[in-house]
Amino acid sequence: KSGFVAIVGRPNVGKSTLMNQVIGQKIAIMSDKPQTTRNKIHGVYTTDEAQIVFLDTPGIHKPNSKLGDYMVKSAQSALSEVEAVLFLTDVSEELGGGDRYIIEQLKKIDTPVFLVLNKIDKVHPEELLPIIEKFSKLHSFAEIVPVSAIHGSNVSALLETLTRYL
Ligand code: GDP
Ligand code: MG
């Protein structure tokens, strides 16, 4: 099984940390070189069963320039070309405009979107359910997976779930 997976999320939600954790578990290559004008390879995860290419998608964040319109369209078409999208969020912060903006972009594509609730080490377990409910009201996610990227908690479950979609 193999496929391309885009990682999206606001700055500082833990995208790089998650990639380091994933690549640390099974390393192939890690690169910051532009792959196409729309996507940038973050890392390739390889096992006997699967090869997953993780891509960074610039332009999914709320644009702060006039170039924004082109960036947004370009990001949408990039997200339509991958097998799955990982939407990372930080559960220790309130659901705000940044996340809502990204969710609006994700509504425009047919690609399955995984909601990855990161930094679960920073909240009490009973705080998770209300967060899941809030996000579920905004979009129909293919899967919702809580993780702690920094500690590696539940990251293998995330990879197994992802592999099933490829
Ligand atoms: P990015 O901007 O989305 O790539 O975010 P980074 O991976 O650079 O992480 C931003 C900050 O959040 C860093 O200080 C990380 O150490 C921290 N961080 C990332 N994942 C976790 C996590 O699971 N738990 C905690 N407590 N901190 C995390
Ligand atoms: Mg980063």
Set out the fold topology.
Elements: E1 2-8, H1 15-25, E2 27-30, E3 40-46, E4 51-56, H2 68-80, E5 84-90, H3 97-106, E6 113-118, H4 128-138, E7 143-146, H5 155-164
Parallel strand pairs: 1-4, 1-5, 5-6, 6-7
Antiparallel strand pairs: 2-3, 3-4
The chain binds guanosine-5'-diphosphate and magnesium ion (MG).
Molecular structure report:
- By secondary structure, this protein is an alpha/beta fold.
- It has one domain: 3-Layer(aba) Sandwich (Rossmann fold).
- Helix content is 33%, strand content 25%.
- The chain has 5 helices and 7 strands; from the N terminus they run E-H-E-E-E-H-E-H-E-H-E-H.
- It has a 7-stranded mixed beta sheet, with helices on both faces.
- Helix 3 links the parallel strand 5 and strand 6.
- The longest helix has 13 residues, at 68-80.
- The radius of gyration is 15 Å and the shape is globular.
- The structure holds guanosine-5'-diphosphate and magnesium ion.
- Guanosine-5'-diphosphate binds next to helix 1.
Q: What brief labels describe this structure?
A:
alpha/beta; binds guanosine-5'-diphosphate; GTP binding; 166 residues; GTPase activity; globular; small ribosomal subunit rRNA binding; single chain; 7 strands; rRNA-binding; Rossmann fold; binds magnesium ion; cytoplasm; 33% helix
Brief write-up:
The chain is an alpha/beta fold and 166 residues long.
User: How much helix is in the residues?
Assistant: 25-40%
Low-confidence sequence ranges: 26-37
Give the CATH H-level superfamily.
P-loop containing nucleotide triphosphate hydrolases
Q: What coarse outline follows from CA principal-axis ratios?
A: globular
Q: Which ligands, by name, code or SMILES, are bound?
A: guanosine-5'-diphosphate, magnesium ion
Question: Strand fraction band?
Answer: 15-25%
Number of helices: 5
Q: SS-based structural class?
A: alpha/beta
Region (G4): 118-121
Protein name: GTPase Era
Binding site for GTP: 9-16, 56-60, 118-121
Subunit structure: Monomer.
